[in-house]
Amino acid sequence: MPRLKYASVLRFLVILGLFCLSVQIMLSASNGIIDRDGEELMNSNDTSEQVLALVPPELHKYLTVHSKNATANATERASPKNVSDIRRAIQRHNDAQIIYNEDIFGPVQNDTIIIAIQVHTRLTYLRHLIVSLAQARDIDRTLLVFSHDYYDEEINALVRSIDFTKVMQIFYPYSIQTHPYEFPGVDPNDCPRDARLEQAKKLKCNNALHPDLHGHYREAKYTQTKHHWWWKANRIFNQLQCTAGHTGMVVFLEEDHYVADDFIHMLHLLRATADKSCPQCEILCLGTYLKTYQYHTTADKVEITPWHSSMHNMGMVFNRTVWNNIMQLQEQFCAYDDYNWDYSLLHLSQNRPGREKFRVILCKGPRVFHIGECGIHHKKSNCNASTVISKVQKLLQNAKSHMFPSRVTATITAGGAKHNKKLTKGNGGWGDIRDQELCTNMTKVGRQMRRYINYA
Ligand SMILES: *[C@@H]1O[C@H](CO)[C@@H](O)[C@H](O)[C@H]1NC(C)=O
Ligand SMILES: *[C@@H]1O[C@H](CO)[C@@H](O)[C@H](O)[C@H]1NC(C)=O
Ligand SMILES: *[C@@H]1O[C@H](CO)[C@@H](O)[C@H](O)[C@H]1NC(C)=O
Ligand SMILES: *[C@@H]1O[C@H](CO)[C@@H](O)[C@H](O)[C@H]1NC(C)=O
Ligand SMILES: *[C@@H]1O[C@H](CO)[C@@H](O)[C@H](O)[C@H]1NC(C)=O
Ligand SMILES: *[C@@H]1O[C@H](CO)[C@@H](O)[C@H](O)[C@H]1NC(C)=O
Ligand SMILES: *[C@@H]1O[C@H](CO)[C@@H](O)[C@H](O)[C@H]1NC(C)=O
Ligand SMILES: *[C@@H]1O[C@H](CO)[C@@H](O)[C@H](O)[C@H]1NC(C)=O
């Protein structure tokens, strides 16, 4: 299922030649879909001196925290728990709903900004995201919710070492890791991806009658990200005890994002601008994919435009009112044959009876970056996290005097053809009725009080 990419190194080189005076940099512009093949723990020790030099010394610890046994014996660390152990641990954590550091930073309020971070296995990137969050002004008034689809002691140790704000961990309970031989993982009796319908019927495999719109059968690893995104949103808005009266903003980040230190400041400006000039803007967005960055002209600019999945999926923000509207149309999300959460949301946006599609208000100078993708001209093998991270660090350092604008100017645009194009069909990968049903089932779970149970 190939997706469009926007980056072009060649174009960058030409532009660089022309505008070498302004702050410019090419990051990997992409559609923002995280690497869905990455089952490996992206965990190499490749934080370069260059990167460390731009991280305040007191935050170096987040680049080096290991679980107690990590250095002792790698073989043991790889499989510290079996599947039933992990399931039990996950249930215990989800039941307890522990909020770390609540004693220091005070309880979650109805208007506390919640920052939801979807985490898979890319530990190196997560370390840098945490370093960036640590440096954001007013971060101590937020709640960070780390949502995991892979249980790993080292990731857990890192998250629990955070001491600069309130932290919560939630664990997606239907992961491939905890269902290795059954749905939502891969059941040995599931149809092979490329089986033909007739062939599949003969095989009598589980999902023979439900290929996707391209005629392919489900691939567990491609469905997990959409399931996880949906579960996390349901968990945060509808199920946690601490959000029962929450009406504030929820920011959606991923493990390989990186934030600017004024992102919370910008969030308040976006909110205030929306309240004044665009009450129908349901989505706020902190990031956008650019080939070049010119903060001297864009740091204080915001844009109001139709929301589009692949352009406005990074650092998306909305509140419970908007979530309730999404929930009413959950079928548009769950039954749509597309394994991308963002395209599913676009489909929902375009099919709201009696309502316009979503409008977004976004920062023209991005405050969230995607550091986890190396661009189209790099093979995974020579993708160097340090290189991308140090580029972002320097970009932000050069833009320093333009950040924390005291006010912003909004422009309203109709969006290009791409923004407004009506989706005709999905990208596929979501034809299996079990996926559609699991997705719907997630919306039926109600609020759960904290429970401490001893699973001895
Ligand atoms: C990782 O980096 C740290 C700090 O530079 C160093 O002390 C350590 O030996 C490195 N570990 C490996 C396995 O390379
Ligand atoms: C990544 O790049 C940095 C700086 O450019 C370099 O020091 C480091 O060795 C590189 N790491 C890998 C794995 O190529
Ligand atoms: C560390 O490893 C030892 C065995 O090498 C094991 O007994 C112990 O439980 C492990 N500790 C943690 C915290 O995983
Ligand atoms: C790691 O643990 C395994 C299993 O306990 C053991 O066979 C191996 O020798 C250990 N390796 C090291 C480097 O301690
Ligand atoms: C998993 O490991 C625990 C010990 O850590 C053991 O008691 C249990 O029987 C194991 N379960 C399975 C299904 O192997
Ligand atoms: C939060 O909202 C709930 C439900 O609307 C309300 O009962 C509660 O008093 C509010 N809490 C605060 C501190 O305002
Ligand atoms: C929630 O978002 C909607 C749409 O952007 C906005 O109209 C409303 O004021 C927000 N609610 C709160 C409590 O901020
Ligand atoms: C959805 O929930 C129903 C009712 O609890 C259950 O029978 C069904 O197995 C669930 N489906 C999936 C895919 O989880």
TrEMBL record:
Binding locations of Mn(2+): 256, 370
Signal peptide coordinates: 1-28
Location of the protein in the cell: Golgi apparatus membrane
Cofactors, names only: Mn(2+)
Disulfide bonding pattern of the chain: 191-205, 278-281, 334-439, 374-383
Enzyme superclass (EC): transferase
UniProt GO cellular component terms: Golgi membrane; Golgi stack
Binding site for substrate: 118-122, 149, 224-228
Origin superkingdom: Eukaryota
Membrane topology recorded in Swiss-Prot or TrEMBL: Single-pass type II membrane protein
BP term (GO), one: oligosaccharide biosynthetic process
InterPro entries per UniProt: GlcNAc_II, Nucleotide-diphossugar_trans
Protein name: Alpha-1,6-mannosyl-glycoprotein 2-beta-N-acetylglucosaminyltransferase
UniProt organism field: Parnassius mnemosyne
